[in-house]
User: Which sequence fits this backbone?
């Protein structure tokens, strides 16, 4: 059986002026065209060739000796060539682009974006892409707790956190308590492994350990106070969501940084605000 979206070793069973026809070698097997420009030089009847199977612009089954950037079930970064009324068309390294339908996007993409997707066969038997890659990411990463990694954000969940692909292939999560909200889907960022779960998936943090993070957090708060004319219109008792939105840090991190500034006589805390009383 010839399955699109996959590699297949087939036998040349017929030669024509416009290419060769390939099949599995059985008398009743389906035949597929390999265009002339794709036929290896010196190929003869009975030779075996490995090809990638897909459908052309007229929806005909066709093969190629070119190596696509993605196959069915594989996760890869593909560049968006254009966005149309039906979705985004991604460069998959072949003569035909791959459609990412709107309903398979986890965020709205635009031309030039590098999209993390997996390939699947849709209900009409055509190849398509989806940004819902969670179930296709690997769980056998070589990383351990404390390692620094590069990860790409592919989905943000309000209560769970940010789902990421480490190195573009391994499954990871930045839990909500570690998620500061300053990054967007599609961005590649650095993170630190905080836990390797029993299922092999990685828990991550984009901030340093508390004792290291206090100084940059303190600087962030000072900058905010200065931009607000020397006064921040809330204090360390504010709602955690407000702190995360305005400062991109958790309430605990905010309180640690405020305590650091207070200890160094740089601020004063009022009932509903924080004021700068001394410059560095």
Assistant:
């Amino acid at each position: 059986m010839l399955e699109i979206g996959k590699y297949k070793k087939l036998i040349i069973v017929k030669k024509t002026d416009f290419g060769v026809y390939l099949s599995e070698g059985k008398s009743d097997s389906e035949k597929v065209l390999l265009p002339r420009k794709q036929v290896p030089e010196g190929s003869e009847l009975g030779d075996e060739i490995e090809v990638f199977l897909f459908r052309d612009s007229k929806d005909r089954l066709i093969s190629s000796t070119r190596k696509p950037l993605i196959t069915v079930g594989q996760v890869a970064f593909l560049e968006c060539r254009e966005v149309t009324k039906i979705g985004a068309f991604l460069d998959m390294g072949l003569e035909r682009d791959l459609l990412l339908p709107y309903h398979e996007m986890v965020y709205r993409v635009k031309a030039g974006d590098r999209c993390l997707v997996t390939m699947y066969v849709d209900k009409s038997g055509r190849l398509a892409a989806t940004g819902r890659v969670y179930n296709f990411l690997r769980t056998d990463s070589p990383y351990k707790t404390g390692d620094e990694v590069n990860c790409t954000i592919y989905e943000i969940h309000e209560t769970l956190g940010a789902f990421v692909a480490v190195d573009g292939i391994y499954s990871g999560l930045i839990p909500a308590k570690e998620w500061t909200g300053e990054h967007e889907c599609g961005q590649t960022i650095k993170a630190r492994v905080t836990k390797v779960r029993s299922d092999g998936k990685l828990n991550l943090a984009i901030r340093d350990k508390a004792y290291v993070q206090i100084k940059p957090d303190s600087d962030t708060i000072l900058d905010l106070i200065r931009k607000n004319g020397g006064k921040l219109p809330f204090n360390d008792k504010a709602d955690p969501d407000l702190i995360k939105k305005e400062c991109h840090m958790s309430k605990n991190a905010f309180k640690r940084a405020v305590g650091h500034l207070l200890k160094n006589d740089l601020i004063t805390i009022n009932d509903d605000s924080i004021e700068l009383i001394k410059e560095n």
User: Anything to note?
Assistant: The CA atoms of residues 240 and 251 lie 5 Å apart. The radius of gyration is 27 Å.
